[in-house]
Design a protein that fits this description.
This protein is α/β, with parallel strands linked by helices. The protein has 10 helices and 7 strands. Strands 3-4-2-5-1-6-7 form a 7-stranded mixed β-sheet, sandwiched between helices. A hairpin with a 5-residue loop joins strand 3 and strand 4 (81-84). Helix 1 packs across helix 10 (233-253) and helix 4 (101-108) packs across helix 5. It is globular and about 55 Å long. The chain starts with a strand and ends with a helix.
């Protein structure tokens, strides 16, 4: 059965789509069957995987009863990796009030049995799309740029997660905080990462993704960085992150 992992932060610009695309590729490279669900109407995951942006979209399930989630899924050129792309013209206010719609589609279409991992890229705003993702997820990875404002977004998200876990989705758990665009030499970055570790536990900090222009270069060609520049710093970091998540998946399976 698939483990559903939401990639979330209440603050924008933390690299959620970059993480979704490249973590998915890293897990697929290890032989796992991976599906990416792009809930953010910026539709960056399709760009990062070179998947044409055309209907049907993932967002169609929120406005059409005759569309299934499976209708929106396309295979990417990266082996083992599929994507349900976002509609770049979707108005998030059209998502409706049903916070369990995504969960029902995943269950009724037996998608958990078709994949090992389902990654959900989420919008930064606290709207019904984010709530649908958190209601459906088993784990949450929180990417954050190590600076003060991103840290505030972390605290807001943790409060939201706590409320959901204690009520509607008790299986929801924090997989960890992921430093992105990180520098090991900038004093402020180190201070914020240490502060997150002190507040939430050092074991909650996932292997950091360092700044690397090759990530943007890879997106421009519609490829994950581990395929585009496998010897780059970012490819090394995402491979390490993928191994870390894969090990946790194996631990849970046992």
């Amino acid at each position: 059965m698939a483990v559903r992992i939401a990639i979330c932060n209440r603050k924008g610009g933390t690299g959620k789509s970059t993480v979704s695309v490249n973590l998915a590729a890293g897990l697929a490279q290890q032989g796992l069957r991976v599906l990416v669900l792009d809930m953010d109407s910026q539709s960056h995951c399709a760009a990062g995987l070179g998947v044409p942006v055309r209907p049907p979209y993932l967002h169609d399930i929120f406005r059409r009863s005759d569309i299934t989630l499976s209708d929106a899924i396309r295979t990417s050129d990266f082996p083992g990796l599929s994507l349900a792309p976002a509609d770049p013209n979707f108005d998030h206010g059209m998502a409706g009030a049903d916070q369990l719609l995504l969960s029902r589609h995943l269950a009724s279409e037996s998608l958990d049995s078709q994949y090992d991992v389902i990654l959900i890229d989420t919008p930064p705003s606290q709207d019904q799309l984010l709530m649908n993702a958190l209601m459906a997820a088993h784990w949450v990875i929180v990417p954050f740029v190590p600076h003060f404002l991103s840290y505030q977004g972390i605290k807001q998200l943790i409060r939201l997660m706590h409320g959901i876990k204690t009520t509607e989705n008790p299986q929801l758990q924090l997989a960890g905080f992921l430093p992105t665009m990180a520098s090991t030499t900038m004093r402020h970055h180190k201070k914020i990462m240490e502060e997150v570790g002190r507040h939430f536990g050092k074991d909650r900090i996932l292997p950091a993704i360092r700044t690397d222009i090759r990530v943007a270069d890879a997106f421009a060609t519609g490829q994950p960085v581990i395929g585009f520049a496998p010897r780059s710093r970012a490819a090394e970091d995402f491979s390490q992150l993928s191994r870390c998540i894969s090990e946790r998946l194996q631990e849970q399976a046992h």
